[in-house]
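Much of what follows relies on a compact textual record of a protein's fold. A record is reproduced here so that you can trace the correspondence yourselves:

. . .
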Amino acid sequence: MSSFSFRRDIITRPIFSWAHGVLPAMSDTEREALEAGDVWWDADLFTGNPDWSKLLATAPATLTPEEQAFLAGPVDELCGMLDDWKINWEWRNLPPEVWSFIKAKKFFGMIIPKEFGGLGFSPYAHSEVVRKISTRSVTAAVTVMVPNSLGPGELLMRFGTREQQQQWLPRLADGREIPCFGLTSPEAGSDAASMIDSGIICKGTFEGREMLGLRLNWYKRYITLGPVATLLGLAFKAYDPDHLVGSQDELGITVALIPTHLAGVEIGRRHLPSMQVFQNGPNWGRDVFIPMDYIIGGEARLGQGWKMLMTALAAGRGISLPSLSAAGAAFAARTTGAYARIREQFNVPIGKFEGIEEPLARIAATAYLLDAARRLTCAALNQGHHPAVISGIMKLQATERMRIAIDDAMDVHGGKAVIDGPQNYMGSLYRSVPVGITVEGANILTRNLIVFGQGAIRAHPFLLDEMNALGEEDRAKGLDAFDKVFWKHIGHSITTLFRAWGRNWTGGAFASAPDAGDATGFYRQLSRYSSAFALCADMALLTLGGALKRKEMLSARFGDILSELYLLSGALKRWEDEGRQPADFAALEWCMASGFKTIENRFAEILANLPNRFVASVLKFVVQPLGARVLGPSDRVIHQCAQLVLEPSAARDRLTPDLSHVDDDGGVARLEKAFLLVTAAEDIAKRLRAARIHDLKEAVKKGVITQAEADQLAAAREAVAKVIEVDDFAPEALSPIYTKPADVHQFFQELGEQRAAS
């Protein structure tokens, strides 16, 4: 420690001692999770004064010519091979030719570098591939995305030894090995650190030679690709009771590669997750012996598995499920808009009813928002960032909003989406929603504990440095470091207080914003809300300390605000990157109005429930003196937003780009055909309605329309009829215990004969 300092030794020291008392104990797994990944735009939002020029200068995510060719070639070819009804209800699996195609075209090796035989694609290309496939078959999308997300491939690339990479990555890239990763077990779901799966360091025999290794026992479940995997990535707790590698008994979570043909491995049974038939199931290991070099990264990585997993997840959670969710929302927007346009009730397209416009606008705007945030996140990943907090936001918010969009789509479609069969293009997607909500970190846990809990420490400009100073074993050194960062924090908080006060009392009129045309005011409001968020977060941390960790509802509300700030930033970035398209402004307006409503309501809820009522009163005076005042999208915005998907247009195509389009006789292809025919014949149909004539022959005879126009309208009507029809099945095709009822005529004849005889 340096010489005497009045500030440090007289003022800071008692604060340092107090902070030691309120700082919650942090487990090794919590610390490793916090240290995984990095921060990006989330850190700017936490400052209370985001630098919009930094956001707008971020290069948009783009595809290389090779990646574009893959999407236009193998991906489209794969989509053409997929029949979702047969996959889910007849085969209960992808057909053999699809498995062969996926392997041959290296879909499992998208993220593996070319030097190891992979495709070496960017995160954005990975996202685009998953996005397109998922609009054709969720089962195929999950099958492709899992090996490229959290799994042996990414762990080997990041942490594997050179020998491990050379041995396994080429085999994973070309499909000779099918990977899975075993993390979740009956005892350890969201709390993965509580797993009881074990690996005891000992000597054993492997391939005829005695060597040092681990004897493993485990039980895992919910493992995607598990039933068909040939290479299992396994998380377990390593123990060294005989101190063969060091002085510690418990070494911590470790990850290793387990070829599934080893003695003691039991694998092959299947779960059926929400009637989705991607390969998923449990597996067991009983006294499975592996050499030490099967640990990913070798012996040096013993006990580092949790940090390795969290680092890999920091990127993977931002790609796969957000891509599938954004695709689901875009698919819902395109199909629901088309259906609402061609389906008539009371001689009016149902999309013209205000009651339908409201969910239709919500679907369209959600599609705009999710794809905007997906692209922004991929741009960060393309630049080499691994934003853990943002990945958590994306997984949580994308899957939750997809759920709302799909529910809305089901409501608008009505019976068309309820009756299952080959022509139902919504049912499978609807059933798959709970899978996305649950996997890669359950949404309830992510919302209540992770987004703000992790974000407050990682993304805050000073808090992590303060915690590190408090955790310093050398108290004198810790005090010195704490003194320097604490007073910077105080200065920052005072600046934030006055900034939040000024911005909120003026309605954000003078908040920082770039010159963004019609969207400039939106930037000002986000700057205003960011300053209010930074101030309220600081005050909550100051007054609650470690107790905030247990105030899950407060933490969730803070997390909701941070999530909205990020998602709305993505929407503004998309608006700018796409050239400020006037036709798309209604979608941007809807997103902003809805997001601002959520932000203001969450602030009101935080201020109503903050335990320190004096601080809550001061904060209310500063940031929300008039309460929550944003009501959400206006009727005008809702109407304009709904119109985006009700007519063919460049705006509709921008809103729903790069979905799978297969020209077959399936439900989606029928819908697209009918949509184009109906909208093209709209003027003809109007003339018939004005003349109060429905019969086409009569209309031609009276000269209302020409024969060519009658033929055009007849084709549109026929196409609509094919869309709105639903599937039916022979009773014996649905039930193996079906028995044909007695012939009714014969029954009454016999009854009459019995009465006559009596």
In short: Strands lie at 179-182, 198-206, 209-224, 231-239, 250-259, 265-267, 280-291, 344-345, 348-349.
